[in-house]
């Protein structure tokens, strides 16, 4: 069954949703379609994987991040921090309230639509949640900053080296966990794996070798082979093509908005002076 995919900043596309079969409850009752606002980033990829794993129909609203559209008032009404992904589930328990932050979105989807991917209670639940939060607080920031600063290592060797070492620490911590369990949360695949996989794909790009983290590499192969993960690739590829077009078409002013250079902030000198005078920490 083909369902329309409307893009917030682009043309109408189509994504394919499998028809419901015997015993498949996914399409038996009509509901307003879930909306995923995003672009081809790892944090959006993890939500696409979850939606595919849970068999949910959804519309992709592409946000032209490379042209600074995340700072438009309409998008800021969805997420005041101007970041993707954002999920809107009109008929869900959130009552159509936009949900931002990928960890919150994954938790919401698992609790409302995919109980197989987050245990309801007990030690197994907290095993999943602690690895989910580790991804949000450590894996994404360390690997993302490593990708950023390695491009400008000549300009800031300290930052490049710092995040290169932090990234290696993250990869090795994941490998240690996966040496003792099949998946990050334990014996079963969960939202912790969905969250971490898109970022772990940077492993080779960050100069790591298979022999450095063999258990992590084997886990990546296992997750990559899942049918839902394979289906999500097509969704991300379509957004990637739009992102590439946006990058090519962006004006100098739009590039500055993408980088956040338009945001008012203290100068380095003002920030340094504030450290010595502030009584608020």
From TrEMBL:
Taxonomic placement: Bacteria, Pseudomonadati, Pseudomonadota, Alphaproteobacteria, Sphingomonadales
Segment forming the signal sequence: none
Domain GST N-terminal: 31-117
Protein's name according to its UniProt entry: Glutathione S-transferase family protein
Organism name: Alterirhizorhabdus solaris
Domain GST C-terminal residues, every copy: 121-247
TM segment ranges: none
Keyword Cell inner membrane found: no
Similarity comment: family membership: Belongs to the GST superfamily.
Sample GO molecular function, one term: transferase activity
Alphabetical list of InterPro entries matching this protein: Glutathione-S-Trfase_C-like, Glutathione-S-Trfase_C_sf, Glutathione_S-Trfase, Glutathione_S-Trfase_N, GST_C, Thioredoxin-like_sf
SUPFAM superfamilies reported for this sequence: GST C-terminal domain-like, Thioredoxin-like
Family annotation (CDD domains): GST_N_Ure2p_like (cd03048)
Sorted UniProt keywords: Transferase
